[in-house]
Design a protein that fits this description.
Strand content: 15-25%
Strand order of the largest sheet: 3-4-2-1-11-10
Distance between the termini: 71 Å
Largest sheet: 6 strands, mixed
CATH architecture of the largest domain: 4-Layer Sandwich
Number of strands: 11
CATH superfamily of the largest domain: Endonuclease/exonuclease/phosphatase
Helix content: 25-40%
CATH class of the largest domain: Alpha Beta
Number of helices: 8
Length: 317
């Protein structure tokens, strides 16, 4: 029994050291891109610190005390990254069934996904008004169009927007060449014209991700914000300091709150255990929109879950 307690205590101490070190390093994400990449692991670090405390508590002597202390440090540092997400404002809200509401689907379908019929069936059953698809393929595009007759923009790219009717106008803001993938269009709705835009950012461990974020801010600065809906796979969690900067810099309100959409256990990250811990798919909207509901969709063969957001127009004052 003594040997087992020593082993458990030592394991807890090692895990506590790792979690505390990473969670503390992540605080440097305020000034460092590589360190900011660690912030995306915050939920795992918090869970790891809790496990380290449990193991350390079963140990003995100095290792037990050191493990408990470092586990506490790791838990506090990880929680400090997560808590601000639950304190930020989510913008105006509206009741279910509010007049003029629209349903928005955001989904990175994964380019290698073979469940095209399942995806199409689910989308049709949801009866959405705007469908934002990332990593969409020509085969999926053609299946959705054949089934619904909907209009699509970005049909030759990997990001597409499907709508019931053709866009009114398409005023594409200027961007540096080959920097940012996005499409946008202005559409009619029962409450007036709205602007829809979809994008896909790269992984946050590279400087290219930061460059894309900066370009996106400049693009959004050229667009009217009040009725704008921005959706996409941002490959960035709310625990990231870069995401917090974007939340301010976009001039829009992110309507999802800590909804983990990655990974599902399928797609390129296929594994026996699905542990979605990263909210990296987001929907932003301007002040002309109130949030009615936000929910996660089912696993449809991608490494991402869909995000379903219902918005309603804010009544003019």
């Amino acid at each position: 029994m003594h040997g087992l307690r020593m082993t458990l205590g030592a394991s807890g101490l090692i895990l506590a050291i790792v979690c505390a070190a990473l969670a503390l390093l992540a605080q440097g994400g305020r000034i460092s891109i590589p360190l900011d990449a660690i912030t995306h692991l915050a939920p795992l670090l918090l869970a790891g610190a809790a496990l380290a405390a449990l193991l350390s508590g079963l140990g003995e002597g100095t290792a037990r005390l050191a493990g408990l202390g470092l586990a506490l440090v790791g838990a506090v540092a990880a929680a400090a990254l997560i808590v601000p997400e639950f304190l930020r404002p989510l913008g105006p809200t509206a009741a279910l069934g509010a007049p003029g509401q629209i349903k928005v689907i955001q989904f990175n379908v994964w380019r290698g996904n073979r469940n095209l019929k399942g995806i199409t069936d689910w989308i049709v059953a949801e009866k959405p008004d705007l469908v934002f698809l990332v990593e969409a393929t020509p085969a999926l595009r053609d299946m959705i169009k054949a089934r619904t007759g909907w209009s699509v923009i970005g049909s030759q790219s990997s990001v597409m927007v499907f709508t019931h009717a053709h866009y009114l106008v398409m005023n594409r803001p200027e961007t540096p060449p080959k920097t940012l993938t996005f499409v946008n269009g202005t559409y009619a709705s029962s409450s007036g014209p709205l602007e829809a835009m979809i994008t896909h950012l790269s992984w946050p461990s590279t400087a290219y991700h930061t460059e894309q974020s900066q370009v996106l801010r400049k693009v959004l600065a050229q667009m009217p914000k009040d009725r704008l809906i921005l959706s996409g796979d941002f490959n960035s969690t709310p625990w990231s300091f870069e995401r917090r900067k974007d939340d301010v810099g976009y001039g829009l309100t992110r309507r999802d709150r800590a909804v983990p959409t990655w990974p599902t256990g399928d797609g390129p990250w296929r594994g026996p255990v699905a542990l979605p811990f990263a909210p990296i798919d987001h929907v932003y909207a301007g002040p002309g929109w109130a949030t009615t509901s936000v929910r996660r969709g089912p696993n449809l063969g991608s490494d991402h879950y869909p995000l379903v957001v219902t918005l309603a127009p804010v009544a003019p004052r």
